[in-house]
Amino acid sequence: MAEDDFVPGSMDISDQKSTYERVMKFSGYWGLPFSMALGTFFTALLADNGLLGGFFLFIVVFIFTHIFVKMFFSH
Prior knowledge:
This protein has helices at 13-46, 50-73. By secondary structure, the chain is mainly α. The longest helix has 34 residues, at 13-46. The protein is elongated and about 50 Å long.
């Protein structure tokens, strides 16, 4: 990446728009659920639920958030 000579303004509008849409879709569908689930996992550890409880809550929050985000943004 550091070897590439990036010239600002070298992408046309359609490339910028498609890149933006892909990044936002990925971060919404996978990044947000993972971040929330990770926060829940560490909160469960602090609440003394143990590793098994933390992993269980991680999975539950990840799946629920992923489904909710997909339902919310499907239009």
